Amino acid sequence: MVANAISNVATGARSKSIAAVGPYLKSFSIVIVFVVISAFFAVANEYFMTWLNWVNLLRQSSINGVLAIGVTFVILTKGIDLSVGSVMALAGMIAASLVTSTNQHFVLWAILAGLGTGAALGLLNGVIVTTFNVPPFVATLGMLSMARGLTLIFSDGRPVPNLSESFRWIGGGSVAGVPVPVLILFLVFAIGWVVLSYTTFGRYVYAVGGNDKAAKTSGISTRTVIASTYVISGLLAGLAGLVLTSRTTAALPQAGIGYELDAIAAVVIGGTSLAGGRGSLVGTLFGALIIGTINNGMDLMGVSSYYQQLLKGAIIVVAVMLDQFRK
Amino acid sequence: MLLSTGSNPEGHGKNVALGLRDEPLLVADGIAKSFNGVPALRDGRLVLKRGTVHALCGGNGAGKSTFLNIVMGLLHRDEGSIRIDGLAVDFRSAADALRHGVTIITQELSPVPEMTVAENIYLGREPKIGGLVVDFPNMRQAAKRLLDDLEFDVPVGARMRDLSLAQIQLVEIAKALSHRADIVIMDEPTSAIGEHEVHILFNALKRIKARGSAIIYVSHKLTEIFEIADEYTVFRDGRFIESGAISSIDRNHLVTQIVGHEVKTVEKGKPNEGAPILLEVRSLSRGSHFKNISVTVAAGEVLGIYGLLGSGRTEFLETIYGIHAPTAGDVFLDGTRVDPGNPKKCIQRGMAMVPEDRKDTGLVLCASIAHNIALSSLALRAVSGFVRRKAEAAATDRMMRLHRIKAASPNVPVETLSGGNQQKVVFARCLLTNPRLLICDEPTRGIDEGSKQEIYTFLREFAAKGNGVLVVSSEAPEILQISDRIAVFRQGRLDHVVDGHETTQQMLTDLAS
């Protein structure tokens, strides 16, 4: 009782003092973290700061960035999407099957099939969560396994190689020196940012995550809004699947395992609250860039991948600890 | 009391020994506290006598919370002195205050839902066998003794999640009182409980008082203050204003002291005789919550619904507004049937609802004032899918001025506002959709006297423009002050509809119980 009284009072006083500058400080601090990490690697390795390396770094971050943007929508509504890694594998596999040397269709059909697969699985997630009231963690955990199973069934556990050149352009091509995946990432970010900041749907996403009962009382169809965020997450997982498959020049049944964790990590490092209602895509973008920078920088320094895993995990926890401490 | 004395070794004994002395138990003088150079409290004073209930009154921002937090050791004072039993004290933490016999009961509930009542009461100080294993039989017995002693009708073996909100509040009160403190601070203890439980609580307070302890009681419900308090102290703008015996003043005097100026009571004109019917509810039922209710609201009329907590009144309002679907019956607005179970359609038809609990169902606390105000009308205006930012900014600005919402900017989160200002944000959101029928569930719960009067005035003016108001309240003086007619709810049924201009408070409370 007394301990609760203390924490109530403490949070009350705290939230008052930082309320006005909070949002600005928040998006600002993630940029500082990014700059500090980059500066460290710049000092540690002379190749890090070159244009070529940055293009490479951005390309490495693009798949995680696209996934994380989709997951941000879901997390803003207080949900979670664990299925994106598997969904991207299935979407990539189905798309690839349409552009092999033995079964060659127009590349647009492959793209639409991949995006459609992602959106359809996302819709299924959304319906399971909103209509059948299954907790998002459980619903998407089930989808993680189901989509992986479908990928293995569909491919019979074998890779699909020899993809058409036009399909390989998605992951390997570039426009004016900028890799296509990087362009896709920035395009997705720009659209996502406009949707969240300027549309009524974006407002509803924040409102539903902040207080679903108040949103409902205000006349918002909370189920539609929540289900839509899973569709967005699935659609972007499908897009990421196209990019990944195209880059690896073959669809692999084991593609994307564990990618959902990096995506969620990017969202959390970016300051979006797992409790819903607070967060931004700017944070998520920098969250993905921070993870990409750590991977890239440690590769350059020749740190073994075993230590990379350890350090990456530690940095994720420390980043969020600092965020809590600042709050 | 095997368990309670463990946490407070000397408190109770001392209490009895000094019980008859006239010397004040607590004297706080000249307490001041600033946050970042902004004074929250300039001159806090309180003299608390043994065996009394002392009402601490003041509007939002009067400095009550700061003062109580200083007494509890949660904040450190800049100036002033606190003496308990004549000895200067300077608590460093709530645990420190508790050791000296000072405890607090706040309005924020914090039960552990999966644990039993007894486990919740003795959480963190369970009686143990051999210092290791929890002595459950002993704990249950102690909890039962405690609850029986207070005459709280709560089963000790029940899990918290199975209790009603009122019962949970009683358990929290029992938990605080189990410390056997000399000084009990109660901050809005009745905000979540009904009249029946309030009665039980007040009986318990009388017994605590008789023991020689003293209670500092904070509540915005003046009716309660006049019922239970012996003395009062008023703070305004961080300063002590006056104190005295509650029997020497009347309600108007207290309101004037709290607000700082005379408050005009609301002008209540009668609606026109032949005004058209705006809302008609025909034989509406919803499961076990309420049965076969038929009422009408005419244009220009305020219909009050009076009933105890749990009488089905909230469910009734929510069903009219479409949050729940009725099991039988219909709702008509302007003579046309309203689609059941769809708040969005109800808003489009011209309804708006101010819900009972603004934090739980009224506001998105982490979102800004502007976003909250625009939330409902967005649902109506979205044509292109984009937010019309200029229109939104203009509407927010207009609403903030119209309702006198005090805030640094429309972009601050509503969680930083006072209760009264938060409630005005809810009203602003509702009115931006241009409703013709406003449904209000306890519209003045937990807000200060000045803001209450503004809301009463607003509701009457809104109705006078030819709109309808349906308002639920458990405060009889409030419902009498604003209603043209009053529907009395009892256990899910509509018992009586009485004239709001002629009924007295006594008649109303008799009808409801």
Descriptive overview:
- The complex is a heterodimer of chains A (327) and B (513).
- Chain A has helices at residues 2-18, 22-44, 51-76, 84-97, 107-130, 136-155, 165-172, 180-198, 200-210, 212-217, 222-248, 259-269, 281-300, 305-326; strands at residues 174-175, 178-179.
- By secondary structure, chain A is mainly α.
- Chain A has one domain (22-326): ABC transporter involved in vitamin B12 uptake, BtuC, CATH 1.10.3470.
- A two-stranded antiparallel ribbon of chain A has the order 1-2.
- In chain A, a hairpin with a 2-residue loop joins strand 1 (174-175) and strand 2.
- Mean pLDDT of chain A is 89; it is low at 1-23.
- Chain B has 513 residues and is α/β, with parallel strands linked by helices.
- Chain B has 2 domains: 2-259, Rossmann fold (3-Layer(aba) Sandwich), CATH 3.40.50.300; 277-512, Rossmann fold.
- Chain B is 36% helix and 24% strand.
- Chain B contains 19 helices and 22 strands.
- Chain B has a 6-stranded mixed sheet with strand order 6-9-10-3-11-12, sandwiched between helices.
- In chain B, helix 8 links the parallel strand 9 (183-187) and strand 10.
- Chain B starts with a helix and ends with a helix.
- The model of chain B is unreliable at 1-20 (pLDDT under 50).
- At the A-B interface, helix 1, helix 9 and helix 10 of A face helix 4, strand 6, helix 7, helix 12 and helix 13 of B.
